[in-house]
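note to self: the first set is below, dont mix up w the second
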Amino acid sequence: MTTENSSKKDIPELEDLVEMTVKIDPELIEGCSDSGARTDEAKTIYMTSRRIAHDLIVKGEKETPEERVTQRCVISTGDPSIADIMRYTDDAIEAGVKAIKNGAPIFVDINMVKAGVTKKGHDCEVICVLDEDQNAEVAKKYGITRTAAGFLLARDRLEGSIVAIGNAPSAALAVCRMIEHGIKPALIVGTPVGFVNAAESKEEIRKMDVPSITCVGTRGGTPMAVACVNELVALAKEKDECKCCCECE
């Protein structure tokens, strides 16, 4: 018997490997409206996480939209203390939901953020600014980061958009400079992470005359930026569904 035939024979059948990791709960499945959870197991896991996060974060009888976004950030990091560092300015949730319902483009700093943003529940184009300067010509010319160069090159399309930065403080600072020159996105989601300018760039974002969702300090990252955008999509979808029901009545 050849090695190839032996290897094929030793591979178990797919059915022998499939196993649920949680007990499927029909009630949780029924209550799940998140577009990213598409199977019964995924819906059960997601809703179980939401219930845990809800109990940790929600202070009043009814959760606020800000608490909704915060819950998702806590789930994405597995860190309940993230709730203490979240910041929202200038009716950020309302601005973000409106932009998504209007199909505004979503500009992101890196492809990991682009990959994480849900493809369902909205008509927004998600654009990674690294594609704006693919050969890094502008970045090299001015000696700046590729993400900063990408946002600068997209400056004529940022007005009214959603900017989501999960990695690069330099990109956040570049966006702030453009805002100072009159270019205004509809919303900035800024959760850049690290020890060089991460805390400072987010503080700078909060000073801008633009709605923003940020976190304080050096923590942050792609999962948080993605969580914020995806929860805004979920909120926008729910508003549309609610409006439809009201009109039908």
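second set (the one i keep forgetting abt)
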Amino acid sequence: MNTIRTKICGITRPEDALAAAELGADAIGLVFYAKSKRAVSIEQAQAVVKNLPPFVSVVALFVNENEQTIREILRQMPIDVIQFHGDEDDDFCRRFDRPYLKAVRVQSAADIQTACAKFPNARALLFDAYHPTEYGGTGQSFDWTMLHGNIGKPWILAGGLTAENVAEAVKISGAAAVDVSGGVEISGGVKSREKMAAFIQAVKAV
């Protein structure tokens, strides 16, 4: 029986991070992108991770951020993994001495194969729904059947996942890890313990 890994992204409150950890999330995501309704400052992010238990990974999400800002955040924060959601290339993503995830907005199966070639140093790819102007967190899903088969790199499924559809999404796509944000929220950046519990329970039941 395979264990599906779960990341709760867009955490803005310490109590939500603790709840996610208590419920069994493997990672939490912090959004350092000012245009996002889930954006956090360094001070907010420090408060979020301050009391996290061991072995819960902290992922920092950036969208077309400059190198200096990223380095400053890494200097002030215990970040385990970086997630790039913009137009960054592999050379930029690998500069920061952290494993990195590269988000890919999927329109076709070709996007999946192209990403594998373009980001050889990514720890994993994160496949999300395509949106012409938004960089993730849209609540939209895509055709999960495009992911079934040998992709050639570790990957994570994101995009419109909820407690109601995540089991089906995993079965159709073959995902070994899932990423949820809006699907477990009361409002932008405010998580629901009940929704997180239902989501993680659904994942574990697959």
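remember for set 2: Helices lie at 14-23, 42-49, 67-76, 90-93, 109-118, 166-173, 193-204.
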